[in-house]
Structure formats: structure tokens, C-alpha cells
Write a structure and sequence with these properties.
disordered C terminus; 52% helix
Length: 56
């Protein structure tokens, strides 16, 4: 089993995470997708691409 690591975020990414946390009222955790299993990273990619297609 691979170890899952928390992602290192730049300032802009961190600000976006903080904005989303306030908007939806939950704590978000960003994981380093290079350490995730192929099934986990695939699910992440699906969610991420679906989100990016939504209008802001």
C-alpha cells in the first residue's frame, strides 16, 4: 500500500482552498496525486475535471 502524502501548495492554491472551505463550510485536504493509487487518482481526476467544467 502506498503512503498518501499531503500536497505542497503554492500561495494561490492555498487561497483557493481557503475560499472553497468558507464557501461550502468544510475542511479540505489536498493530497499529492503522485502518491495515490491508480484508482484513487482516477477518481480525483474525474472529480477535478468535472469541477473545472462548471461555471463559476
Amino acid at each position: 500500500m502506498k503512503e498518501v502524502k499531503v500536497a505542497q501548495l503554492d500561495q494561490q492554491q492555498l487561497e483557493k482552498i481557503n475560499e472553497l472551505e468558507k464557501k461550502i463550510g468544510v475542511t479540505l485536504v489536498a493530497y499529492d496525486s503522485s502518491t495515490m493509487s491508480s484508482q484513487g487518482s482516477g477518481a480525483f481526476e474525474s472529480i477535478n475535471s468535472a469541477h473545472s467544467n462548471q461555471p463559476s
